[in-house]
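User: Fold this; C-alpha cells only.

Assistant: Input:
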Amino acid sequence: MSTQLKTYLKFAGATVVIFLLLGYLAYTGVQDSKSYYVTIKELHKMGDGAYSKRLRVAGNVQPGSIKRTGTHVQFVLMEEDQTLHVDYTGTEAPPDTFKDDSQALADGRFDRDGVFHAKQLQAKCASKYAPQQPGTPGATPSAEPAKSVTQVQSTPAGTTN
C-alpha cells in the first residue's frame, strides 16, 4: 500500500469520526432541549411517563398560593377542576406579570412527590394589553388609544424582523 493511500485513509477516518461526533452532539442537544406541552389533566393521566420527560404545563395561578423567597417561588396552577403544585427555582425572578389569577407557563420536570419542578417560568396577563370594551365598568373615553399586543409588537410596513 502506498503512503499516499495510507494518508488518504487516515484523513478519511478522522473525517468520519468528526462527523459522527458532531451528529451525536446535535442529537443529544436536541433531546435535552425538547419539551412536551401538556395540560394539567393530561399530566395527571401520563402515569410513569411524566417522570422521564421535560414538560411545559400552563394554567392560571391560584389566588393566594404564591410564596416567594428571592428567585425561589412556590405556587399552584389551576385548570378547570385540576391543580398542580409548582416549585420554581430559576436563576431569574419571576416576571412582573406573575401574580394571582395570571396565566403562567412552567417548563421543567414532574417529580414522584407530585410537585412540578420548574426551571423556567413565563407569565402573562391577557387583560393588560386588551382594549377596554365600551360600556364596561371603568371604561372611560380618553385621547390615548388602548395598547394592544399587535401595536406593541408591530413593525413598519416593508420591514422584517
